[in-house]
Amino acid sequence: MSMFSTGILVLTSPLHTLPLRIAPVLSSAAQVVERTLYVHLHPGLNLGTGGGQPRPVFIPPVVDLSSLITGLYSNAANVCGHLDVRVLLTNVRAQPNNASSPETGGTGVACNPFPSPQPLSHSPEVVLTDFALQDPGQSPLVAQCLQRYTGRCYVCTPGLASVLLHPQLQKLEEEVEKEGQKDDWDSSSERMETYSEVVVGGTFDRLHGAHKTLLNISCLLANKRFLIGVCDQELLKKKVLKELIEPYALRVQRLQEFLQDVKPSLQYEIVPLSDPFGPSVIDAQLQCIVVSEETRRGGEAVNKKRLENGLPGLVLHEIQLLKDAHHTEMEEEKISSSSLRSRLLGTLLTDPKQDKSHLPLVPYVIGLTGGSGSGKSSIARQLEALGAVRINSDQLGHETYRPGEVAYNRVLEEFGSDLINEDKTINRRALGRKVFGNKERLKALTDIVWPEIALLVKERIQQAREEGKQVCVVDAAVLLEAGWTDIVHEVWVTVIPEEEAVSRIMARDGVSQEDAVRRLQSQWPNTQQVEQANVVLCTLWEPEITQKQVRKAWDLLQKRIQQSREGAKPPS
User: Fold this and answer.
1) Where does the Cytidyltransferase-like domain start and stop, copy by copy (predicted)?
2) Is 493 in a helix, a strand, or coil?
């Protein structure tokens, strides 16, 4: 079966049977779509009557629909986590109950939710459905009807393909029949209370199923305006692996795209949050705040502030957390951005930006760097144990200060012969005092020493090449500051929170907290280093977890090396 980048899934099963179908339907859809899967809900839609082309209709927001959306995103995370699933709500709207008619599809709403086809961020190339065929001979007619129906609703790629998922769903037919067929919208279904203006807040890093559930249900609740506060600056400082949080502008861009797809009729307002409350405590127009069981206290705190400000409290609409079926021991049980960030450790985050064609493929050179106390050297030793040649630039730095070396003479010329010890070596502690706190003098020193260290590194790499070694790891705290990225194939960065680094430096070197902080502040911050990184590692947790990260990084590296060498071979 052909694979398509983007598809749209039209769900037609009665609402009460859809929970039984969601997992197999999504699993089947994932065999056809590989990137974005839109979901359009029209329970009760009949694609096989032959009595005229079915039309899209408005459907009411009922509590069961909210539960279905939660279950849909939960199942998507479990069975097709690689897909960007988006439940579309353009045709969901609260309306008074009028007389039912065939024209309204039983909803009492005569108008068309799609006066013109809605454009989506990614144009669907294929439409899929769970519609159950009564007769296999209907397939061509149903497929044609499905294509026309979808074309009335959304702007699709010309030549839209169609796939009927019914063969994969036949096992469910008996269960559905046992349940009994009901109308598409049972009169006993509890309607959701909706509100003119709704507010939510969050980090929204690496938009995932739990975020989408929150956003979708908020869109169900909102009739006019939806206000979204996005954590920024101060609110990110305590986040796990904050260095891997996407930039604010990118998070906002992805939110806008998702929301515009889901319900374009709403007025969206996305604002940065530098405190836990933002505009939720001063905006008099807001009526409802959507929370989870985890953030309910935050919602209650918002209402307390609103009352202090003379504003009415907001209705707290609570949604359930989504369980993460794939979580590890070190991760939260719920679907969370912090777990997703932790899974990035050891993986290739970005391809090398510079052209590396000037570097021989053997040995493949990793530049390993990180701030003081980050555990960089322990990771270098683990990589060495796995087979890499470790090149310790700190040791090479000591060599450059030996009598007779080029750097030795230049340092004495620049900083004075009073630095010479009795054994003719340079007193590096005295040299440090001369450059400490003086950027110009420090640069004068590094301009002398760093190029000499780089030459020694290149010599060690050449030696490894002559010995037939496959991988070298350049262990260098100043890799990025010194501009040595042109001598390595990839940059790997180790990070830990600053407070943990300070504790480690104090314990390791016996220095004060003030001195430890000063040392860290003299180096590139984690965020700046991660911007240059191809791979990121973190030694914050138990040694066994770090070992798993390193092993994962090493195994993925071996695959990349194999691919690069196969790509470099001339065609046979």
Assistant:
1) 199-342
2) strand
- Are 456 and 450 contacting, i.e. CB atoms less than 8 angstroms apart? no
- pLDDT tens per residue across span 329-364: 778 889 999 999 999 999 999 998 778 889 999 999
The packing angle between helices 498-509 and 513-521, to 10°, is: 120
Residue 474 CA to residue 471 CA, distance in Å, equals 10
CB within 8 Å of 373: residues ≥ 6 apart: 496, 500, 501, 502, 503, 504, 505, 508, 516, 520
Is the same domain home to 161 and 233? Answer: no
**Would you place residue 172 in the very low, low, confident or very high pLDDT band (cuts 50, 70, 90)?**
very low
Q: What pLDDT shows up at residue 108? A: 43
Judge whether residue 570 has pLDDT over 70.
no
Distance CA 192, CA 388 (A): 60
pLDDT at 556 over 70: yes
Indicate the pairing of strand 288-292 with strand 364-370: unpaired
Q: Does the residue 182 lie in any domain? A: no
| Averaged pLDDT of the chain | 90
Separation in Å, CA 462 to CA 257, 366, 419: 49, 14, 33
Q: Which residues contact 239 (CB under 8 A, 6 or more apart)?
A: 203, 245, 338
Burial (0-12, 13-18, 19+ Cβ within 10 Å), 232? middle
Q: At what angle do helices 393-400 and 439-466 cross, to 10 degrees?
A: 110
CATH code assigned at 544: 3.40.50.300
Rounded to whole angstroms, the Cα distance separating 521 from 430 reads: 21
In a domain? residue 488: yes
CATH number, residue 294: 3.40.50.620
Does 289 lie in the same domain as 400?
Answer: no
pLDDT digits (tens, 9 = 90+) for 479-530: 999 999 999 999 999 999 999 999 999 999 999 999 899 889 889 999 999 9
Does one domain contain both 387 and 519? Answer: yes
Give the chain's domain count: 3
272, part of any domain: yes
Asked whether residue 494 is assigned to any structural domain, the reply reads yes
Q: What is the pLDDT of residues 28-74, one digit of tens each?
A: 999 999 999 999 999 999 988 655 688 999 999 999 999 999 999 99
Same domain, 163 and 205: no
**CATH classification of the domain holding 74:** 3.40.50
Helix-helix angle 63-79:18-29, to 10 degrees: 30
* CA end-to-end distance (rounded Å), the chain: 31
DSSP 314: P
Say if residue 247 is in the same domain as residue 390.
Answer: no
Pair 216, 159 in one domain: no
Helix or strand (DSSP H, E) at 347: none
Range of the domain at 466: 345-568
